[in-house]
Amino acid sequence: MPPKTIQENAIFIADSHHHSIYNNNLDKFFLYLATLSKRQIFLMGDIFDFLVGGVSNSFRENKTTLELLEKLSHIHEIYYFEGNHDFLLKNSSYFKNIQYFSYTSQPVIFSLNNQNIYLSHGDIAISYGYRFYTFFIRSRFVISFLNFFSCILYPKIISHLKKKNNGYNQKDFIFLAKKRIKHYLAKYQMPPRSIIVEGHYHHGKMENMDNILYLNLPPFTCKKNYFVVEFQNSCLSFIQKEFKSDKY
């Protein structure tokens, strides 16, 4: 089956780290998206700061936002990439009209202007230790334990997340881009002019190396920046935009 095509005006958003109580930065944006004509919306992971299938408190506290997301899924074509803060969501009723990609199914190959686009949240192939961690936190035992003792554990998790700095990453982006491109070239048969799009690292930059474009999406949680796919003079462009929440 050929890769699905990314269409013009598709929207990419990553790392909003939304929580309805202490970091509500999605509700107004979702209301804005509901006013747009039908398009593709790519939610590239860590959209919620803590939303885990099987942990009922995380759904209860984000109920309003999830209802808005469900309404959006009846207007737009939504693709949701599992992150390390939001996972095991595929079976939720809120996601029944959303195309959901688990950690193990990423990257997902799309096409755009005869180019292959490799999409993932970005935390794939970091290290063997991290890979063990990702499977451990998704295990049935851990989820059941967390949900059963949620009256004690859930507030501690939220308190910890509140203190985290989810701002822009100031580390060397060129080093990261080289490392990520090298990994993709080694593992996947990537044709020239392919594009890698990831979140997770909070850089909001792009770099072209070895005839591969690496785009790391900006963290929406900071300045509410996102990317829109546009064609200008027959050329493909990823245009970074900022959402002005004061209008909604």
From TrEMBL:
<dbReference type="InterPro" id="IPR029052">
    <property type="entry name" value="Metallo-depent_PP-like"/>
</dbReference>
<dbReference type="Pfam" id="PF00149">
    <property type="entry name" value="Metallophos"/>
</dbReference>
<keyword id="KW-0464">Manganese</keyword>
<protein>
    <submittedName>
        <fullName>Metallophosphoesterase</fullName>
    </submittedName>
</protein>
<dbReference type="GO" id="GO:0016020">
    <property type="term" value="C:membrane"/>
</dbReference>
<dbReference type="GO" id="GO:0046872">
    <property type="term" value="F:metal ion binding"/>
</dbReference>
<dbReference type="GO" id="GO:0009245">
    <property type="term" value="P:lipid A biosynthetic process"/>
</dbReference>
<keyword id="KW-0479">Metal-binding</keyword>
<keyword id="KW-1003">Cell membrane</keyword>
<dbReference type="InterPro" id="IPR004843">
    <property type="entry name" value="Calcineurin-like_PHP"/>
</dbReference>
<keyword id="KW-0997">Cell inner membrane</keyword>
<dbReference type="InterPro" id="IPR043461">
    <property type="entry name" value="LpxH-like"/>
</dbReference>
<keyword id="KW-0472">Membrane</keyword>
<feature type="domain" description="Calcineurin-like phosphoesterase">
    <location>
        <begin position="11"/>
        <end position="131"/>
    </location>
</feature>
<dbReference type="GO" id="GO:0008758">
    <property type="term" value="F:UDP-2,3-diacylglucosamine hydrolase activity"/>
</dbReference>
